[in-house]
Amino acid sequence: MSEDQKRVLEQQLWNIANTLRGKMNADEFRDYILGFIFYKYLSEKMEIFANVILKQDKIKFRDITPKTAQANDFLEAIKEEALEKLGYFLRPEELFTEVAKRGMGNNEDIDLFDESKTNFILEDIQKILTNIQLSTMGTDSEEDFDNLFEDMDLNSTKLGKTPEARNTIIAKVLTHLDKIDFKLENTELDVLGDAYEYLIGQFASGAGKKAGEFYTPQEVSKILAKIVTTGKQKLKSVYDPTCGSGSLLLRVAREVKDVAMFYGQEMNRTTYNLARMNMILHGVHYRQFDIKQEDTLEHPQHIDDLPFEAIVANPPFSANWSANPIFTSDDRFSQYGKLAPSSKADFAFVQHMIYHLAENGTMAIVLPHGALFRGGAEQHIRKFLIENKNYLDTVIGLPANIFYGTSIPTCILVFKKCRENPEDVLFIDASNDYEKVKTQNVLRDEHIDKIINTFRNRTEKDKYSKKALLTELTSNDYNLNIPRYVDTFEAEADIDIEAIANEIKAIDESIKETDKTIADFCKELNISTPF
Fold it and tell me: Do 257 and 329 sit in the same domain of this protein?
């Protein structure tokens, strides 16, 4: 698919999504449109899979009806295979296309804003979404599909005051989605996955402060992904303890040939559902991901899993956490001697991730700049990580105003347990490299490449990057504020005092001449002078 075709597809999806915009806020209509796209994906995947099985019988899956000879035998055989390979099952009459057709009846070419009558399909859709989940009961995929569509309340008055009004808008959305070809049969393309990512990004840009709960801007994701995959073609595992919509995990997968297993945890229930949908939509088999819903710091869900080879995270900045004294005996925190303050959980996330990091692994975390220099317990933890463990590898300063919902400058901290360059820490000041787009600062490919090339080659560039010896960090009391190490001072041009004095004299002479001219005019006019 060309870039132009991709942009057309993205615009089509955004236009369809906007049919709901006037009825609810971005957070709410996001859940409906992304849920319907996911339903369409599951349907098309199911149909393609079933048609391959039925090929030798010379019958199409959607043509199977109760009147078809051996219909039950066909469906039972397909269901058994589908639950094993896909993790779920849909009957022919439950396919997205069939429901969309039933909804619009003979009005398939209706305009989105035409108020013509539609057939009632609300109850059908609600039952189908429930059946998808029920089909997985007792199977290995049950947890991955559990309550996946719970945020799609088709009886919500936000969709319309009456059932008929709600039915009309949903039928139209389904009909227009049905006309879009996601090219799922071409396994080399990830058209739907890319489109889904685009929509998530669009919703994030319009969702204000809440966006940070579920989405990391793609350019930041790209930096984190390239850092943790440096020197590797395959990963045994990748983990994100605050995974949001799962986009960061999927970005890591783009940088290598294969990721054996994805792990993630997300506290927000709606975002957790979004993450599971996102993984499946991108072709990640249900046995290849383990996404859990819980508070990562208070109730970690992957504590007994093997250490992870790559860890990435964009946790909520300076979030609150309990800092309960009981955690001083928790293996994640006990060796440090201090817990991160309850009002700022930044280093609690660092400690949690360090605990899960494999000996040959790399982790990269986005933090607010304050985490670099704040005192107290945070300074104590920084000292332990640098002096006792020597895990800190790189500090990267990012521009301000690149995250949705906050304009504060941020940084990336990179940690490794087995560092290739244990004698120094690399500091990169990329805070001035960006392009301003409307009210947001954006990192372009050239800015990202500059950061990654500097990181990978550990090059020192004037006013951009510097390798600081550990003794220098010690002498600065483990303050990691980047200007302490990367000198970005720009000397002011020399001022010629004598030239300025002569210029002032010339101005004074000019003023005197002007005053004399004005006085002469006033005398001729027989009026008093203004001075």
Answer: yes
Q: Which helix (H) or strand (E) holds 99?
A: helix 96-104
Q: What single DSSP character describes residue 406?
A: B
CATH number at residue 59: 1.20.1260.30
b/e per residue 496-510 (b: at least 16 CB within 10 A): eeeeeeeeeeeeeee
Report the distance separating Cα 22 and Cα 326, nearest Å: 48
Q: What is the pTM of this model?
A: 0.86
Cα 187 to Cα 171: distance, rounded to the nearest angstrom: 29
Alpha-carbon span 321 to 381, nearest angstrom: 17
Q: For 426-437, what is each residue's pLDDT tens digit? A: 999 999 999 998
- What is the tens place of the pLDDT at every residue in 399-458? 999 987 778 889 999 999 999 999 999 999 999 999 998 888 999 999 999 999 999 999
C-alpha closest to that of 218 among 41, 465, 29, 402 = 402
- Quick count: other Cβ atoms within 10 Å of Cβ 479? 15
Structure tokens belonging to residue 199: 């929509």
- Could you tell me if 377 and 257 lie in one domain? yes
Structural domains counted in the chain? 3
Which amino acid, residue 399? P
Mean per-residue pLDDT, 140-165 = 89
**Can you give the three-state secondary structure of 223-255, one letter per residue?**
HHHHHHCCCCCEECCEEECCCCCCHHHHHHHHC
Predicted confidence (pLDDT) per residue in 238-256, tens digit: 999 999 989 999 999 999 9
> At which residue do the structure tokens 């500059």 appear?
450
Q: What digits encode the pLDDT tens for the residues 37-89? A: 999 999 999 999 999 999 998 899 999 988 888 889 999 999 999 999 999 99
Mean pLDDT of the chain: 89
Note whether residue 491 is domain-resident: no
Whether residue 233 is found in the same domain as residue 182:
no
Q: Looking at the domain assignment, is residue 133 inside a domain? A: yes
The single residue listed with the structure tokens 């936000």 is 158
What six digits make up the tokens of 385? Answer: 């990580």
Rounded to whole angstroms, the Cα distance separating 135 from 459 reads 55
